[in-house]
Specification:
Radius of gyration: 31 Å
CATH superfamily of the largest domain: FAD/NAD(P)-binding domain
CATH topology of the largest domain: FAD/NAD(P)-binding domain
Number of helices: 13
Strand content: 25-35%
Shape: globular
CATH class of the largest domain: Alpha Beta
Distance between the termini: 72 Å
């Protein structure tokens, strides 16, 4: 851990020249022990720095402590850069209060009580001896007090300058940063952003032989799909034109049962382990990219700061991929971009609560949103879901911290209503267990490529020659929910989703490769929600597994660029066949360099079909000659279902008794012998107890009846046995005639018994 840096151990002369002055600058994020304070890096571009956040859900967090070296004995004025985080709304009293202890002295000033914006708060003076002493941040409330840095100076009359630029000149001087920062690279591909898109790009490129840097400003990977935000990963994978795309994402995608899920369900350790297992990836966690170096219309380097120490590193590369979500790399590079001016989707901060065996208390929150139980949807299943969303039409870039803070005020106001207002009688034992302080944004800047995908393209199924990533999520756009917007019309905090379900959710719409590179920055790829689409099209491509597949395609394209010494656009214009070939390889395929032979390991995933891997029992693994319901010829009114588990393939069909519905399966016999006829179905009390099953083989016909209301071994009822010859084509017909309940058509099979 880098210790706080002294900016003036050598002493500075005051303007009068009559006395030397000493000063000391301490970044809060560099504290040796953060205690219960959280490192918040979301708003560096907005306010200039990472900072520590006392996110204790209403209970004071443990002190953050460090050791400082006082350069000289004397009286020091203490300045703390902080803010009163609800002051911008005129709310009171300030919730995020904390104290500062230096050595044995606790300063009288309470910090976090003033300032609508980040600014220096004068903490008064203290007499300090030269040498090492302790420094501590002492949270008072657990309600999100925040501290950026501290400045101690014997110049008692001069205020410190503003510090809202990322590593501005004054902060650089105080940190003692070298004129020439550390340089890394060059890499074949520099990926900025470690969510699903960034992980997909880095892993894909590395396995295809590229040297990759993966820069992530958080301590964990996964972005919205990490334990910090806990949005379950959506979007179907391994399907469409290239069913191998998505296999890499399948290796680390979460299996959360709800959103927000639990910490364990998001597998932060698994994500990091998979990335670190790739020798071609240089993983740079806790690094925030904040600038680019250009040469003409190409990026040559990205500059990042270590969010724990402030140290800088310049990362050089041939190709870059913007997976930041907000399009930061493209913005700094001067890429063509767009951002919808009105009607944008917002940011969510989800939350969870639980109940204990004994009554609990929660502090009153007069500074939070003024809510009663009718002002918000009840958090059923003990969690506040994705629709706790605000920031519609607010500045998603320059005012992101305020959007997050408004969400926090909404959550605390809701829980206050549950504990201290009209919900108190029903929630005596309720406790807050988790509130996301890392926001989950949905929409901001989009970087323009050679194709700007539109809703009309998707709905009309426009066929682009380079269509590759299957987007299966509906066109899902969020708006304030009117029922809850009336009390806070300026910034509603509950959303509603409007779904255009014209998207093929099984096969998927193939998003073109030309959406994944910049049209004017020649070596810039993008993957994730900042790709080249319109606001409406963003509604379907923005979910995490789909974003991850974009990254997989970018990684493969980057390897072609490295092998052919070409640029992203050239892959489309001159090497599209090569990209198509790579997209047919398994996700675990690899090569040592971009020009080496590709090796497919023995543990590669089984190739899925155009509609993805079976969500039920794989028909290929069933003994015998099998026909699934997807292969059946249907007549009459059948409905599709997946609710009864244990089905074969992708689901099943069901039809009501007496509706003249039939399902006809055809099976080709390859060898003569005696066969059992199996009828697969999941049991349910509403199923028919005498479903008629007819076997036809030429002029031969036999009727059977099976009870579909009860469980059969492996969900397969033996209807009967029949002798068949090689070359026979057998028809098996399930009918609703004679049924006394729902008829279930899942699969049929002929299993040889001699």
């Amino acid at each position: 851990m880098r210790l706080p840096t002294l900016s003036a151990v050598c002493f500075l002369l005051l303007a009068t020249g009559t006395a030397p002055a000493a000063d000391l600058f301490v970044e809060a994020e560099s504290f040796q022990d953060r205690g219960g304070w959280k490192l918040d890096t979301q708003f560096i571009q907005e306010m200039g720095s990472p900072y520590l956040l006392a996110h204790g859900l209403g209970k004071p967090v443990d002190d953050a402590t460090t050791t400082i070296t006082v350069p000289a004995e004397g009286k020091y004025r203490i300045w703390v850069r902080t803010k009163g985080w609800v002051a911008r709304w005129g709310a009171a009293p300030p919730p995020g209060k904390f104290k500062v202890r230096i050595g044995e002295d606790v300063l009288e000033t309470t910090f976090g009580t003033q300032g609508k914006q980040w600014s220096w708060h004068d903490g008064g003076t203290v007499q300090l001896a030269k040498g090492a002493t302790s420094l501590a941040l002492m949270d008072q409330t657990g309600f999100d007090g925040r501290c950026d840095c501290l400045y101690l100076t014997t110049d008692l009359s001069t205020d410190p300058p503003a510090a809202d630029q990322v590593l501005g000149p004054w902060r650089r001087q105080q940190l003692g940063l070298p004129d020439q920062p550390l340089q890394k690279g060059p890499y074949d591909l520099v990926v900025v952003g470690g969510g699903y898109a960034g992980m997909g790009a880095a892993l894909s490129a590395a396995r295809m032989g590229c040297k990759v840097a993966l820069i992530q400003d958080r301590p964990v990977l996964g972005g919205n799909g990490s334990s910090e935000v806990r949005v379950w990963a959506k979007g179907n994978i391994r399907r469409g034109k290239f069913p191998r795309i998505g296999e890499i994402i399948d290796e680390f995608a979460d299996n959360a049962t709800k959103s927000p899920g639990t910490y364990e369900e998001f597998g932060d350790d698994l994500k990091e382990r998979i990335v670190r297992a790739e020798p071609n990836i240089d993983l740079m966690l806790n690094h925030h990219a904040h600038d680019v170096t250009m040469k003409g219309d190409k990026i040559v380097a990205v500059t990042a700061l270590d969010t724990r120490t402030g140290a800088e590193v310049v990362v050089e590369g041939s190709l870059f991929c913007d997976c930041t979500g907000h399009g930061w790399i493209g913005t700094w590079a001067g890429a063509d971009l767009d951002m919808t001016s009105e009607g944008r989707m917002g940011m969510s901060n989800m939350w969870a609560w639980d109940e204990l065996d004994q009554p609990t208390e929660f502090p009153e929150t007069p500074w939070a949103l003024d809510l009663n139980m009718a002002d918000f949807p009840y958090p059923r299943d003990h969690h506040g879901q994705w629709f706790w969303e605000s920031g519609f039409d607010k500045d998603a870039i320059g005012d992101a911290e305020a959007i997050r803070d408004w969400n926090l005020r909404a959550v605390y106001g809701a829980f206050n209503a549950m504990k201290n207002r009209d919900g108190a009688e029903d929630h005596p034992t309720a406790i807050l267990t988790w509130v996301a302080y890392i926001g989950g944004p949905r929409e901001s800047r989009r970087l323009m490529g050679d194709v700007v995908l539109t809703q009309e393209d998707i709905v009309s199924k426009r066929d682009f020659i380079d269509g590759c990533v299957p987007s299966t999520w509906s066109i899902d756009l969020h708006y304030p929910k009117e029922q809850y917007a009336k009390k806070f019309p300026d910034n509603p905090f509950i959303s509603i989703a409007e779904h255009n379900r014209a998207v093929d959710r099984n096969y998927g719409y193939p998003v073109p490769y030309r959406c994944f590179y910049s049209r004017n920055i020649n070596n810039l790829f993008m993957a994730g929600r900042c790709i080249s689409v319109t606001h409406e099209a963003l509604g379907t491509v923005r979910v995490m597994k789909t974003c991850g597949m974009m990254g997989e395609v970018v990684g493969k394209a980057a390897s072609i660029c490295a092998a052919e010494d070409c640029l992203p656009r050239d892959v489309y214009e001159d090497h599209l066949d090569d990209l198509v070939r790579l997209m047919h390889y398994p996700g675990k395929a690899r090569r040592e360099t971009p020009t080496s032979d590709i090796v497919v390991p023995g543990d590669a995933m089984t190739l899925a079909g155009p509609y993805g891997p079976p969500s039920g029992l794989d028909p290929a693994k069933i003994d015998g000659i099998v026909a699934d319901d997807g292969d059946a010829m249907l007549s009459g009114k059948w409905q599709q279902g997946q609710g009864l588990k244990g089905f074969v393939g992708y689901g099943y069909r069901y039809a009501a008794a007496g509706t003249d519905a039939t399902a006809t399966f055809k099976l080709s016999v390859k060898s003569s012998g005696k066969y059992e006829l199996l009828v697969f179905s999941s049991p349910h009390k509403n199923r028919s107890t005498r479903t008629r099953v007819t076997l036809r083989n030429g002029n031969f016909r036999r009727d059977y009846h099976v009870d579909q209301s009860i469980r059969h071994p492996k969900n397969a009822a033996v209807a009967g046995t029949v002798s068949l010859s090689e070359g026979d084509v057998v028809e098996v017909v399930l009918s609703t005639d004679d049924a006394d309940g729902m008829v279930h058509a899942d699969a049929v099979a002929l299993r040889k018994v001699d």
